[in-house]
Write a structure and sequence with these properties.
By secondary structure, this protein is an alpha/beta fold. It contains 10 helices and 12 strands. It folds into 3 domains: about 70 residues, Orthogonal Bundle (Arc Repressor Mutant, subunit A); about 120 residues, D-Maltodextrin-Binding Protein, domain 2; about 100 residues, D-Maltodextrin-Binding Protein, domain 2 (3-Layer(aba) Sandwich). α1 packs across α4, α2 crosses α3 and α5 packs across α9. The two termini are about 35 Å apart.
C-alpha cells in the first residue's frame, strides 16, 4: 500500500474520536470501511497504531508518534499554495486562553493550530479555577481549561459556558525507595503518617476534597507543605524523601519517583473547557474541545501507570 493523505486523515480522525465508529461518522464512511482502512495502514507500518479497549481505541506509544507526524504532514499539505492575507480589515484572530495546571495545554494548542491555522493563541497560566472564572466574566480571557470536582461543578454566570473534557482519578507520587513502592495500588490510609505536599486553594474545591478523603480514610495529615511551583522541583523533593503528593495520573515520573493509583479511587478531578458565549463561536469551541480531548488521549497513551489502572478497573467493573 502506498501511503496517501486520506490515510493520514483516517488516523487523525480515529485518534481524535477515540472510536472507529465515531471517526467513521465524522469522515462520512461506514465503520467497516474505516476498520478495513486502519488494518491496511497498520500493516503498512508493521505494528498496531491503536490499542482496542471496551470503551474505544487509544494510540499506542508508536501510534502517538505516527499520529503527531500525520498531523504535521496534513497541516503542511493544507498550507500549500496559500498566500498571506493582505486585507488589513481581516486581521488574524487571537484567542486569549487561560489554563490551570494541566499537561494537556501544549497538545491542545498544537491541535488547535492544525484545526484552525488562522487563529493564534495568547496563553496565560492561572492556577485557581475561581480566578479563571473571574477573568472570563470580566472579558479578560475568551476561553480556558479549568478544574472542578465531583459534586462541586464549576460555578459561573450565564455569560460563560463550560463542557467537561475528562474526569480522571488522582494518583500519588512516592519516592522509589518507599516501603509501598511495589504495590499495584496504595491505600490512602497507609499514607497517614507521611508528610504531604499539597497545592493551595483553587477556589473550586481543592484541597477540601483531599482533606475530606483523608478524613474518610481515618486520619488527618500530620504534616502538610503548601507547594505551588515547578513539577520537576516537586518531584525532586519527593525523590529525596521529603514527602508524598497527590498528582495527575498522566504525570511522568522522574528517576527515583513512582506514581501509584489510590485504592478505591477516593479522589477525582474533572478538567473542563470554559468559554465566553459571546466571544467564541460554536465551531471554535468544538475545535478547542476536540483538541483538548485528543491531547489528553495522547498523554494517557504515554502513561503506563494510568493504562494499568484503567485495565484493572475495566476488568473489575466490566466497563
Amino acid at each position: 500500500m502506498e501511503l496517501e493523505l486520506r490515510h493520514l486523515r483516517v488516523l487523525c480522525a480515529i485518534a481524535d474520536a477515540g472510536s472507529v465508529g465515531r471517526a467513521a461518522v465524522e469522515l462520512g464512511y461506514t465503520q467497516p470501511a474505516v476498520s478495513t482502512q486502519l488494518r491496511r495502514i497498520e500493516r503498512h507500518f508493521g505494528e498496531p497504531l491503536f490499542e482496542r479497549g471496551p470503551t474505544g481505541v487509544r494510540p499506542t506509544p508508536y501510534g502517538v508518534e505516527v499520529v503527531a507526524q500525520a498531523r504535521d504532514v496534513l497541516n503542511r499539505a493544507s498550507a500549500i499554495g496559500r498566500r498571506p492575507a493582505v486585507d488589513a480589515a481581516s486581521p488574524r484572530r487571537t484567542l486569549r486562553v487561560a489554563a490551570t495546571n494541566s499537561p494537556m495545554l501544549a497538545g491542545m494548542a498544537s491541535g488547535l493550530r492544525a484545526r484552525l491555522p488562522d487563529v493564534s493563541l495568547a496563553v496565560s497560566s492561572v492556577y485557581a479555577s475561581s480566578r479563571i472564572v473571574e477573568l472570563l466574566e470580566a472579558g479578560a480571557v475568551d476561553a480556558a481549561i479549568a478544574a472542578d470536582y465531583p459534586g462541586r461543578e464549576l460555578e459561573h454566570s450565564d455569560a460563560v459556558a463550560h463542557r467537561g473534557i475528562v474526569t480522571e482519578p488522582t494518583f500519588v507520587a512516592l519516592p522509589s525507595r518507599h516501603p509501598l513502592r511495589s504495590r499495584a495500588q496504595v491505600a490512602l490510609a497507609d499514607l497517614a503518617d507521611e508528610a504531604w505536599f499539597v497545592t493551595p486553594d483553587d477556589g473550586a474545591g481543592w484541597p477540601g476534597v483531599f482533606y475530606t478523603a483523608c478524613s474518610a480514610a481515618g486520619f488527618t495529615p500530620v504534616a502538610v507543605h503548601e507547594f505551588l511551583g515547578d513539577q520537576l522541583q516537586l518531584q525532586g523533593m519527593i525523590a529525596d524523601g521529603l514527602g508524598v503528593s497527590a498528582v495527575q495520573p498522566t504525570t511522568r515520573p522522574i528517576p527515583h519517583v513512582v506514581i501509584k493509583p489510590l485504592a478505591g479511587t477516593p479522589l477525582w478531578c474533572r478538567y473542563v473547557l470554559a468559554w465566553r458565549r459571546e466571544a467564541v463561536p460554536v465551531g471554535m469551541v468544538e475545535a478547542l474541545f476536540q483538541s483538548a480531548v485528543a491531547a489528553h488521549r495522547e498523554l494517557a497513551a504515554q502513561s503506563p501507570h494510568l493504562k494499568s489502572w484503567a485495565a484493572r478497573t475495566w476488568s473489575v467493573t466490566g466497563v
